[in-house]
Amino acid sequence: MYHEQRIPWWTGLLVVMTLAVAGGLVATIMEYSHLQQSATPEVLEQESAGYIIGILTCVVTETILFSCTIVFWKYFITVDGDMVRFGYSWWNVTCNVDQIEKVELDQARFSEFFGFGWRISMKNKRIGYIVNLGPSVGIQLKEGRAYLISCRDPEACIAAIQQSHL
User: Fold this and answer.
1) 80 DSSP β-pair partners
2) Burial, 146: exposed, middle or buried (Cβ in 10 Å; 0-12, 13-18, 19+)?
3) Which residues pair with 4 in a beta bridge?
4) 9 φ, ψ (degrees, to nearest 5)
5) In 10 A of CB 103, how many CB atoms?
6) Alpha-carbon distance 112 to 124, whole Å?
7) Which of 93, 97, 110, 155 qualifies as a cystine partner to 164, CB 3.0-4.6 A?
8) Stated pTM of the model
9) Residues 105, 108, 111, CA angle at the centre, nearest 5°?
10) Which 3 state secondary structure label does DSSP give 151?
């Protein structure tokens, strides 16, 4: 059995960006409200479209950032019995150990995935669950799909998968 769970380091950046956009949204709404109370009808007519577009842009951005923060909040890997689960709280993979063709020690490289989170490699189309760069676990399924998962102790994770495979 192997279990690992953590909050990715970059989730803090998502939280900061979400709060910053929320602050900008509140400030824009307050300024627009003040404009509606104090401006002449001509000025209000000229300025309203810009404020409404700005508010809508902030709302869409806030929704996307908040959703990403929730989806990617927790990262986990669990090898328990004949099941392997890995990924993020709301975006993860579950497979039976019998579906695994090959499991090996590999490396998560920025040059392959160009970032962190849920990524698709441009080199070989494998799917990466990348929380940090460095030693990782490569999983090849019999159906052809391939994954690379970040792991604190990749050797222990591989051993747990291989032991479950027996």
Assistant:
1) 83
2) middle
3) 77
4) -60, -35
5) 22
6) 9
7) 97
8) 0.82
9) 140
10) coil
